[in-house]
Amino acid sequence: MTAASKRRMQTASRIHVAAIQLAERDGLSNLTTEAIAREAGVSPRTFFNYYPYKEAAIAGPPKDYPQVASDDFVASKGRLIDDLAVLIAAHLSRFVDQRQQFATVLRLAETDAKLAALEQSALLERHSLMEQMLRKRLSSHDARLAPILAAAIISATRQAVLEWAAGRSDDLVALAIENIGMIGDAGDLLSQKPVA
């Protein structure tokens, strides 16, 4: 990562943190982009170079999968479940010190339609990224498996984030990996007869 891109990420993060803190303190309806910029120590113009509106600043920068981990996942010849664990650990470990921020954003999204839509859009984007990686990795398999598996992985990871943000688990990475491991168990349920 270049020094310029690192500074850009730091500024985006600073604006994001300021937006969350002010939204929590003052309420989302009282929040302005000018107040966020002031709190983050940037000009309003700089704010708009990073985010188009206050809800986007609260949602924060895209939480894409790390490029090196993504490339390794696609190229690996190991067991899919093991390689998923490595990828998800690389992805989520970047956020383990941000539990309060995640919890606040999730709580705010419960009552703000624009923020909720941004959160859903981010989930769809991660689903698309996961599907693309799976399509490359599983190119010799039925193409329908990639989007189905991607949906299950995103859902399992999302559930881990929700439980962790709510304080029901202290280890986000371990919970996400455990949830992903349950995908096979869930698949097994489809072929089992109901227990009387």
From TrEMBL:
Q: What name goes with this protein?
A: HTH tetR-type domain-containing protein
- Coiled-coil stretches are none
Task: List, alphabetically, the InterPro entries matched.
Answer: Homeodomain-like_sf (IPR009057), HTH-type_TetR-like_transc_reg (IPR050109), HTH_TetR (IPR001647)
Protein's UniProt keywords contain Protein biosynthesis: no
Per the record, a Pfam family?
TetR_N
The organism is Paracoccus tegillarcae
Under PROSITE patterns, the record lists: HTH_TETR_2
Residues covered by the HTH tetR-type domain: 9-69
DNA-binding region of this protein = 32-51
One annotated GO molecular function: DNA-binding transcription factor activity
Q: What is the lineage of its organism?
A: Bacteria, Pseudomonadati, Pseudomonadota, Alphaproteobacteria, Rhodobacterales
Q: Which UniProt keywords apply?
A: DNA-binding, Transcription, Transcription regulation
**Gene3D superfamilies, sorted:** Tetracycline Repressor, domain 2 (1.10.357.10)
Q: Does the keyword Transcription regulation feature in the UniProt annotation?
A: yes
